Amino acid sequence: MENALLNRYRGSESGPILEEHAGHKKRPTLNNGRLHMFGKNSRTIAIARAALLGLLGLGGIASAQTFDVSRIEVNKELAARLPEKIRQAGVLVGGSDNDYAPWEYLAGADGQTPEGIDIDIGNAIAAKLGVKYESRTAQFTTILPALGTNYDIGMSAFSITEERKKVVNFVSYAETGNEWLIKAGNPTGFDPTDICGRQIAVQSGSRHEERLMIVNKECVDGGHKEITVLPFKTQTEAVTRVAVGGADATVTGSATALYAAFKSNKALETVRPVGEALDVRGLNGIAITKSDTELTELIADTLTTLIKDGTYKAILDSWGMGAVGVPEAKINPASEH
Predict the structure, then answer these.
(1) What are the pLDDT digits (tens) for 42-75?
(2) 3-state SS of 231-257?
């Protein structure tokens, strides 16, 4: 499966990323064919990231924010359609990168408890089917290839794209757009109508990166300065880079950006993108392996039941994200992403 099929709208992997996972080495990335060395060492960034997580209420000491699914009644007709493997295990397993608040992230007393909109919806689907939901943390780009083996479903704010639909099935469950996230007061004078020459942090393996590279090509073709693209493994790291002044902005999903700004104690603010490449809206979907039509239909029917009985809306409203809701769950719908 090509990298372009693995992205979130969170954007597409435009080139290899060389990471140092240990020690205090700098993190080199390939930026338009050039290695870009981030200036601050990993200790500084780790401290800043921890501070930002605390500011956003996403640190390890954060209290749990989960939707109570204990009152959801099992639908026996839907439960009878569960694949035998899932029924015997008593668990519906979902793959998430768990670092994309408010969709999914790690919090709780241990700092390792998955929480977020995706987790709550996964819990609700599982409860309606009479099983438990388990969110397994994985790097974003590894989730779709592992559907059907490591995970029953992919619950990680995946954008539905025509390319992805060639290799996985999707059940739509939210409609979102894009948003810039910048430091409050816009100290760098960031102008969404002209981002050429700017330093932009972005989550690698997301479609935002792919869209950003389209704009960058337009800059270069027009004789303007190219964008300095700073790709990060997680969106939290990209937000941190902006918060510490190491980037002018980051582009991400509207729900994530609005939630981060809301929780930042006025340290961050959002700006709507301009232009066809970045100012787009589209559907997010729950991913299921392409070969499993029965599970795809079951997830769609179960989510539709939750939409009709009000559970779905209650979950979104509990996160202040009722605006991203959809009226029905569709299988492999057309999407603008």
Answers:
(1) 444 444 455 455 555 444 334 456 789 999 999 9
(2) EECCHHHHHHHHHCCCCCEEEEEHHHH
